[in-house]
Amino acid sequence: MSAKTPSELREQVRGEVVVPDDAGYDDARLVHNGMIDKRPAVVVRVANAGDAMATVAYARDNDLDLSIRGGGHSGPGFGTNDGGVVIDFSRMRGVRVDPTAMTARAEGGVTWGDFNTATHAFGLATTGGIISTTGIAGLTLGGGIGYLSRGFGLSLDNLVSADVVTADGKLLIASEEENADLFWAIRGGGGNFGVCTSLEYRLHPVQDVYWGPMFYEIEETENILRFYRDFIKDAPEAMGAFPAFQIAPPLPFIPEDRHGDMFIAIVGCWSGPPEEGERRFKAFHEVAEVKAEMVGRVPYPAINAAFDDLFPKGIRQYWKGNFVKELTDEAIAAHADHGPHAPTVSSTMHLYPINGACHGVAPDATAFGHRDANFAMVVVSAWGDPSDDAANIGWVRNYSDAIAPHSEPGGYVNFMDGDDNERVRANYGGNYDRLVEVKRRYDPDNIFRVNQNIVP
Ligand SMILES: Cc1cc2nc3c(=O)[nH]c(=O)nc-3n(C[C@H](O)[C@H](O)[C@H](O)COP(=O)(O)OP(=O)(O)OC[C@H]3O[C@@H](n4cnc5c(N)ncnc54)[C@H](O)[C@@H]3O)c2cc1C
Questions:
Q1: Which is it for the CA torsion 131, 132, 133, 135, positive or negative?
Q2: Is any ligand 1 atom within 6 A of the Cβ of residue 155?
Q3: pLDDT value at position 99?
Q4: Neighbours of 121 (CB within 10 A)
Q5: pTM above 0.90?
Q6: Number of neighbours of residue 27 by Cβ within 10 angstroms
Q7: Is the CB of 311 within 6 Å of ligand 1?
Q8: What is the pLDDT of residues 352-400, one digit of tens each?
C-alpha cells in the first residue's frame, strides 16, 4: 500500500525524506539553476530502486507533481517543483565497470565526473557532456552531446539497458530484448516514461585526448565559422570540435591585458591517438592567428571538468537550442551580430557537431529527433545578480530568434527552457507520434509530467 503522508513514506524508504520544516530543506529543494526558487512538499533522497518505487506510488496516489532529479542541471529546473514530490538521486552514485564486456552500469544520480573517472581507470569512456557535474541520467535520456559524439554517437546511442520504475510503481528492464518500445522511448524521451534507477552503457577505448580551446580575435568570427563548417563536414570521426563565443577569463594562458575581452574560440578535441593531435590541430592554426590557447594531451575526465568553474551551482541560467542542417552564410552573419554581445563570462553560444557517428543511427531507431541535423546549437546565459535577469534572458531570446530562420523548428530537448513546451512536437520531428503512443501505454495519466512533456 502506498504511503499517505510524508511520515508514512519515511517508514517505507531506506533513504532520507526531507520536508519543509527539516533542517537542510533549502539544500534539498534547490537545483543547479539559481533562478529556480520552488518549494516541494517532500524530497526523497532515495537509496535504492525500492525507494523510487515507493515514492512514485506516493506521488501518484496523492495526485502530486513528481520531479525526478539526477544531476539537477535541467535549465528549466525540472528537478524540483512547488508543492509536489522530488525523487532525488544524489545518494545513488555507484558505477560498476566491466572492462571485459566494455560496459558500465551507473546509478541514477551519477554525474559525468563520477562516470568518467570510474571508466578512465580502465582506459575506457563513452560520450558524455562537457561539464563534470551534469547528471548522466537527464543528459542521456534527452540525447547526450559531447566531445565524443562524432566518434561514438550520442550518449543514448551507447545505452545498452536501463532499470525503469514506471507509473504503476513497477520496475522494468528496458533494452533491445526486453520492453523494446520503452527502451526506444527513453532514448530521447527524457523522464517522460519512468524513473531510471540505473543505466548501462557501452564503453570505448579512450584514455588521453588531445584537447584545448584556441582563441581568435572577434573580428575573425565569420572567417572561423565558415572554416569550421567546411572542416567538420569531412573531419575524421575522432575529431570533436566546436566553436564558441567566450569572454576571456583571468587564466594564465591568456595575456593579462586581454582578460575580459570577447573572442571567438574553437574548442578542439582529438580522441584518436594523442600523438597525432598536434598534426590534427594544424588547420586550426592556419585559418587565423591564435591569440591564446591551452592545447595538449589531457586525460579524458579532465576535459569534462575544464569549464566547471564557469557554471557553479546556484548561478542563474537561461537556455535556448536549435538543430541546424546547414550553417549558411546568412546564419553566420546572424551569429556575428549576436554572439559578440554575450553578457557574461559564463554566457555563450556553442555549436556542437552531431554528424559522424550520430548519423550512423537510423532516424527512427531511437526517439531522438533530427538525425539529419549537422549541428545542435545552444545559446545560454549564466549570471549572478537577479537585477541582470532581463538583460541576460533578452540576449538569449534575441540571438535565438535571429538564428531561427536558419534552423530547424525543433531543437535538442536538453537545451530547451521552461517556456519551450510548445516546441516538444518539433523537437522530436517524425518520432513524436510514436512517443505519444508509448506514453499512452506506460504513463496514460501523465504522472511523469514535470519535463518537456509528451502529453499522452
Ligand atoms: C552546466 C551545464 C552543462 C551542460 N552541458 C551539456 C552537454 O555538454 N551536453 C548535453 O547533451 N547537455 C548538456 N547540458 C544539458 C543537460 O543535458 C540537461 O540539463 C540535462 O537534463 C541534465 O541532466 P541532469 O540529470 O543533471 O538534470 P536533472 O535536472 O536532474 O534532470 C533533468 C530531467 O531529466 C530527467 N531525469 C533526470 N534523472 C532521471 C532519472 N534518473 N530517471 C528518469 N529521468 C531522469 C527528468 O525528467 C528531469 O526532468 C548541460 C547543462 C548544464 C546546466
A1: positive
A2: no
A3: 98
A4: 10
A5: yes
A6: 11
A7: yes
A8: 999 999 999 999 999 999 999 999 999 999 999 999 999 999 999 999 9
